[in-house]
Amino acid sequence: MTERMERIGVAGLGKMGAALARAWAGHGLPLTGWTRRGLDPAEAEAMGVAVAADPAALAAASDILVTSLTDDAAVEAVLGALAQTDLTGKLIVETSTISPETTRRLAVPLRAAGAEIIDAPISGGPEMIAAGTAGFFLGGPVDAVARFQPIAAPIANRWHHSGTLGQGLSMKIVNNMVLSGYVRALHDAVAVGARAGLGLPEMLAVLLESPAASGFLKARAAAVLGEDDRVGFAAEQAVGDMEVFLAEAARLGVEAPGVAGMKALAETAVAGGYGAEDVASLVHRAATGAE
Q1: Is the dihedral angle over the CA atoms 240, 153, 175, 233 positive or is it negative?
Q2: For a tag site, which of 32, 119, 195, 252 has the least CB within 10 Å?
Q3: Pairing mode, if any, of strands 116-119 and 122-123?
């Protein structure tokens, strides 16, 4: 007898949530979606999702509920609404980048309603989700993580179970802050190099062959050169991640001046009207004087 396929519900269909929905629908998984802004039939058809009228309807139509939301307040509102429904036997997968403490606090009423919850922030953007090369940082019970992995498999080729609930988020922000520090250093370095008369292509050619090269630089070299305007990780999104990290650092009594400096740089991009551009564009602007 064939085991019934788990039904997936996605709450939040912005850039990342929509990418998740399209990828899962493309693999033939039963999918229902809901978003606070509403979803018209044409948009839902393009994503391959059935539309739920509200969180309660989404919960009723799903076995695994995946949230992809903007910030702590949005997650609290949606998970709070879900906690008012019967969640017996359901798995909540929280992919938003929010405070680990918020996730742990919201788990209490969700478990009381019958659900289990894991945090599963994503490594990579919509392009990597579509290509099946994204990653997950996972926190929560081993059996709950194992339940999610077959669902994650079509969109991710790597996952790391970091520990208990909230520790997936902690690992995600640790990872992202290393990248943020690299972007900040690269930004400052090429700005000085440009003013010293070095061309950006020349600098990049050397950096890509030196110990200063990184996976980020290799993947985003075309964007740094201004030849690729695709957005993998927007400056405004980076600001949100850094806010989460700095709040966690403050809670734990750790100073993080390097991250604070990168946050100020990304906020300048947002204020200048190019916060929706990839963070790699910050480096390009530094070298070309377009800041």
Answers
A1: negative
A2: 252
A3: unpaired
Mean pLDDT by 10 residues, the chain (291 residues): 77 94 94 89 87 95 96 96 97 96 97 98 91 96 97 93 97 95 95 96 96 92 93 90 96 96 95 94 90 63
Supply the CATH classification number for the domain 8-164: 3.40.50.720
Question: Long-range contacts: 105-111, Cβ < 8 Å, 24+?
Answer: 106/75, 106/76, 106/79, 106/80, 107/165, 109/80, 109/83, 110/79, 110/82, 110/83
* Residue at 220: amino acid letter: R
Query: Which candidate, 99, 95, 127, places its Cα nearest to that of 231?
Result: 127
Q: Which residues of 186-200 are buried (b: 16+ CB within 10 A; e: fewer)?
A: bbebbbebbeeeeeb
Q: 155 to each of 1, 98, 274, how far by Cα in Å?
A: 27, 21, 29
Look up the pTM and report it.
Answer: 0.90
Q: Which of 206, 199, 220 is nearest to 282 (CA)?
A: 220
Kindly list the domain boundaries of the chain, sorted by start residue. Answer: 8-164, 170-288
**Distance between CA atoms of 101 and 19, rounded to whole angstroms?**
27
How many Å apart are CA 130 and CA 67, to the nearest integer?
Answer: 18
Q: How crowded is residue 84: how many other Cβ atoms within 10 Å of its Cβ? A: 12
Task: Give the pLDDT confidence score for residue 41 in this predicted structure.
Answer: 83
Question: 111 burial class (0-12, 13-18, 19+ CB within 10 angstroms)?
Answer: middle
131 sits in which H/E element = helix 126-131
The domain 170-288 having CATH identifier 1.10.1040.10: the answer here is yes
* R_g (Cα) of the chain, nearest Å: 20
Which residues does residue 67 pair with via DSSP β-bridges, in sequence order?
11, 94
